[in-house]
């Protein structure tokens, strides 16, 4: 195993190389910066970031704004929708050596990201608290951070208009009182979701104003998600069900008589999606989820 150099020495070597007279064209230019007002105070960040490391959750937001990613978390890497990440390095907040080698000019993570003080020595580092902002405000903040606020605003306006119109069309087709639930299997556990935990929930409940089953509303609305056993799924299943399916997880419950007797199952109103494409609520994921929902509930 290769020995890791002490962090201060590695930083000196990396930064010296970037500032060397012979540095190649395209190396990080740190001269042009903007001040981003983060939740923890102002942060000086590149005005035009070229090499971003995303440690969790926000890769799709960055990609949607046409900003280059050089390091990403493993969950984002697994998403088939993020084709641009095919050759991007997987990193964690413990991979300081690898992150240094990637020579980032900006690092984005969550509030629970480890080693933030050390990451800040490598590049400007901004963290967000998951769920503190609603999903569209979060994209707008990423836009501000990347100096692409107007692009983010434009996308938000267009997306809301399209989702709300689709919601009206869906209600006209399935009825004002029809309920929709979102379920997901992970490992050997089954979950239902509220209105703000990705997997299309923001679209269905916030934008389209579709109805959540009462049991889901009671148990999952506040926390965002709720673990259930397959035996009680019928209590949480709506008239229509979006099933965010992990094919490598336990799906044996689908073979049971209990599952087969759920009205949504008997009426062919369960629509299976690839969970890896449904985990996030960035623009790339949201556009795919919206198309999926429209096809499922409008037969388009």
Automatic annotation (TrEMBL):
Q: Which residues form the signal peptide?
A: 1-19
Q: Where in the cell is it found?
A: Cell envelope
Q: Does the keyword NADP apply?
A: no
On the tree of life, the source organism's domain of life is Bacteria
Q: Which family does it belong to?
A: Belongs to the bacterial solute-binding protein 8 family.
Transferase is among the record's keywords? no
Q: Which GO terms describe its cellular component?
A: outer membrane-bounded periplasmic space
Q: What is this protein called?
A: Iron-hydroxamate ABC transporter substrate-binding protein
Principal location listed in the UniProt entry: other
Q: Which Gene3D superfamilies match?
A: Nitrogenase molybdenum iron protein domain (3.40.50.1980)
């Amino acid at each position: 195993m290769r020995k890791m150099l002490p962090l201060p020495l590695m930083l000196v070597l990396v930064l010296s190389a970037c500032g060397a007279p012979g540095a190649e064209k395209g190396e990080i230019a740190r001269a042009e910066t903007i001040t981003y007002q983060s939740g923890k105070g102002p942060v000086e960040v590149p005005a035009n970031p070229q090499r971003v490391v995303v440690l969790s959750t926000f890769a799709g937001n960055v990609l949607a704004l046409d900003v280059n990613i050089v390091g990403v978390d493993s969950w984002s890497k697994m998403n088939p929708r993020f084709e641009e990440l095919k050759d991007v390095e997987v990193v964690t907040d413990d991979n300081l050596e690898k992150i240094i080698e990637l020579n980032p000019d900006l690092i984005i993570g969550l509030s629970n990201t480890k080693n933030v003080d050390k990451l800040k020595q490598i590049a400007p580092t901004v963290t967000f608290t998951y769920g503190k902002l609603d999903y569209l405000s979060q994209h707008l903040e990423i836009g501000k951070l990347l100096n692409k606020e107007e692009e983010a605003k434009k996308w938000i306006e267009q997306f809301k208009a399209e989702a709300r119109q689709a919601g009206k069309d869906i209600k006209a087709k399935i009825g004002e009182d029809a309920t929709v639930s979102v379920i997901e299997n992970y490992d050997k556990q089954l979950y239902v979701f509220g209105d703000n935990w990705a997997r299309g929930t923001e679209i269905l409940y916030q934008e389209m104003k579709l109805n959540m089953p009462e049991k889901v509303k009671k148990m999952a609305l506040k926390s965002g998600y709720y673990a259930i056993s397959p035996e009680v799924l019928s209590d949480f299943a709506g008239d229509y069900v979006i099933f965010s399916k992990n094919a490598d997880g336990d799906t044996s419950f689908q073979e049971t008589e209990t599952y087969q007797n759920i009205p949504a199952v008997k009426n062919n109103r369960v629509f299976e999606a690839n969970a890896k494409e449904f985990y996030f609520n960035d623009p790339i994921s949201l556009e795919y989820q919206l198309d999926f929902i429209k096809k499922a509930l409008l037969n388009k």
